[in-house]
Design brief:
The chain is α/β, with parallel strands linked by helices and 305 residues long. The protein is 43% helix and 11% strand. The termini are close together. 51% of the residues are buried.
């Protein structure tokens, strides 16, 4: 079997609001992967819409129901940064299903990638920073509840700290949260991950990769997770409008290769999500997101997963 990939066929909400949060990038990413020969259509799986009960394993039930039916108050919507619509509510919910399916496929095949996901700023009772439901946390809780895994590590390399994820699992020893992020960037108030690595503004490729190498292998060896969830945000890129770091396309690809090869060498299954990325040039942004899938395809072949 080739590398399993997840695609959300109805992932475009009509709120193209949005240079701030361009929904069409998800569809364009799928199309680029096919057009560039990175993947074939038969490698893609379509997720199911998850039960609201599964989402409520992480989020307060009142918040889940209120958001789903569109009764979230305007102040809460402003904190999220996205206006409610039925299409966005569906997109939000199916994204959770996509990450959960990605995790299941990673357990079965060693490595799997989503073409969306990484909503790490969502807290139990509210959304924040374009994040509504925390797909990484929900997938973790579902798999732990089902007994498919005993220990999960979340490796978050989005440029922003995974603050919602850190708070959700702050007292949960079976989930290890590792966040390597720009210190001066959003959120202004940081939560406490199991391992936080704050980075200076303007950090470039080589220093970034050396820093990652100084932490990730030892953490994996010490924690010995049954599954790694990898948030491969591309907002550390030098061209990202919300980033403040200075990685190049090559640096992003080397980062993804480094994470995936480190995990594959020790036979830790990895489920990948694309995380954040913000750029006026849509093709450049989609290409950056595709680097994860290009790296994953290479690692999948190299290690014969």
């Amino acid at each position: 079997m080739d590398l399993p990939l997840i695609y959300h066929p109805n992932y475009v909400a009509p709120i193209a609001n949005t240079n701030r949060f361009p929904m069409e990038k998800f569809r364009l990413l799928y199309e680029m992967l096919i057009a560039d020969g990175v993947a074939r259509s038969e490698q893609f799986f379509t997720p199911e819409l998850p039960d609201l009960d599964a989402i409520a394993l992480v989020h307060d039930r009142e918040y889940v129901d209120t958001y789903w039916i569109g009764n979230l108050d305007p102040k809460a919507q402003r904190r999220i940064g996205l206006p409610w619509s039925p299409e966005l509510a569906y997109r939000t919910r199916i994204a959770v299903g996509g990450t959960l399916l990605t995790a299941r496929l990673a357990l079965a095949h060693g490595l799997a990638c989503n073409t969306a996901g990484g909503t790490h700023h969502a807290f139990p009772s509210y959304g924040s920073g374009f994040c509504i439901f925390n797909d990484l946390a929900i997938a973790s809780r579902v798999l732990l509840k089902e007994g498919l895994v005993k220990k999960i590590m979340i490796v978050d390399l989005d440029v922003h700290q995974g603050d919602g994820t850190a708070l959700i699992f702050q007292d949960e020893p079976n989930v290890f949260t590792f966040s390597m992020h720009c210190q001066i960037n959003f959120p202004s108030i940081k939560q406490i991950s199991d391992r936080d690595v704050p980075l200076r503004e303007g950090m470039e490729d080589d220093e970034y990769l050396r820093t990652l190498a100084a932490y990730l292998p030892d953490i994996l060896t010490e924690f010995q997770p049954d599954l790694v969830l990898y948030d491969a945000g591309v907002d550390p890129h030098i061209g990202d409008r919300l980033g403040k770091l200075a990685l190049t396309d090559t640096g992003i690809f080397r980062r993804d290769m480094q994470v995936l090869s480190t995990c594959a060498a020790q036979r830790f299954p990895v489920a990948c999500v694309i995380g954040g990325g913000y750029c006026e040039d849509m093709r450049s942004l989609v290409y950056r997101h595709s680097l994860l899938h290009r790296a994953a395809s290479e690692i999948y072949r190299q290690y014969r997963l």
